Prior knowledge:
The chain is an alpha/beta fold and 178 residues long. The protein has a single domain, classed as Rossmann fold, CATH 3.40.50. It has three helices and nine strands. The protein has helices spanning 14-31, 48-57, 108-118, and strands spanning 6-12, 38-44, 62-71, 82-86, 96-104, 124-132, 145-149, 155-156, 172-177. The strands form two sheets. Strands 4-3-2-5-6-7 form a six-stranded mixed beta sheet, sandwiched between helices. A three-stranded antiparallel beta sheet has the order 1-9-8. The protein is globular and about 50 Å long. It starts with 5 loop residues before the first strand and ends with a strand. Inosinic acid binds at residues 46, 71, 78, 101-110, 154-155, 160. The site of inosinic acid (IMP) has 16 residues, from strand 5 and helix 3.
Amino acid sequence: xxxxxxxxxxxxxxxxxxxxxxxxxxxxxxxxxxxxxxxxxxxxxxxxxxxxxxxxxxxxxxxxxxxxxxxxxxxxxxxxxxxxxxxxxxxxxxxxxxxxxxxxxxxxxxxxxxxxxxxxxxxxxxxxxxxxxxxxxxxxxxxxxxxxxxxxxxxxxxxxxxxxxxxxxxxxxxxxxx
Length: 178
Ligand code: IMP
Ligand code: MG
């Protein structure tokens, strides 16, 4: 699959992303104002660029932790089965938590991760997703904050991969096979 030739058409520029990240961070800062500390949980690996930019714009005491959940495989299709490959290092019971996700697609990953984290009884748990593909949803779930709603296209860049490639692109582009 990764052998197939493709080109990447820019969909969201680095400049638009930066502006949106700033706005999201301002809303998050406002919403969690007064928190003792916000635990920002990045879902590996796709959110690593987004979380790095986002936390630097959040004007609150933060702690950063990571969780790796995986739907099977490497390709363009998600499976319903979600495995936890790497759990959090810290405790979240009684704490304010913000989960940071790259894309909400079918919703299975976020659904599973949210239930897992809620079972640990945080004081409050919200989700910030950079991208949302609402037309692909199979589980009814929404992030508290969404960067951009996009159509049903396979995208890469800004941390997001296609078979582990293109995470280092500074913009978000759609994959087009040629
Ligand atoms: P869901 O469980 O179907 O919502 O899948 C969410 C995960 O699938 C995201 O965190 C991504 O890792 C991956 N994913 C969904 N759409 C895309 C895409 O367009 N490009 C790259 N990865 C994607
Ligand atoms: Mg992925």
